[in-house]
Design a protein that fits this description.
The protein is an alpha+beta fold. Helices cover 26% and strands 42% of the residues.
Length: 132
């Protein structure tokens, strides 16, 4: 975790991990408290969604029958006093994605302004893990 000692980075990372929590994903109010009013996302599916569409999609998911989403390789950089960029990987029941998030500080705290997910497959044994 890069820059993990900084309060802005810690707040963004903590909030990102909250978004992966099944309880938070089921609650309109909790999701709303973490998403910027102008939030945009390019999801793993390739669809572009705004704040309302993300809240509707996440709260409609049945997360009780599946494993929790796991995050790994999270790194963070504070780009400006009010902007933090996170990158990490997730495993959502075998669906892998590289993720990138921009968190903005507002009067309401650190809110997710932009998010993008890109699907990937885990390299097999003997396959190169380097990307050029």
């Amino acid at each position: 975790m890069a820059d993990s000692g900084r309060p802005a980075v810690e707040a963004a990372m903590e909030n990102e991990l909250r978004l992966l929590d099944p309880e938070v994903r089921r609650c309109v109010q909790e999701l709303g408290s973490l998403l910027h009013p102008e939030h945009i996302e390019f999801g793993r599916s390739g669809r572009r969604r705004d704040r309302a569409a993300i809240i509707a999609a996440l709260t409609a998911e049945d997360t009780r029958a599946v494993r929790p989403i796991t995050a790994s390789r999270m790194t963070a950089v504070q780009l400006a006093p009010d902007l933090v960029h996170l990158t990490f990987d997730t495993d959502n029941n075998g669906l892998l994605a590289h993720r990138s998030s921009l968190w903005r500080q507002t009067e309401d705290g650190w809110l997710l302004y932009f998010h993008q997910a890109t699907p990937f497959t885990a390299p097999t044994v003997g396959e190169g893990a380097q990307d050029v």
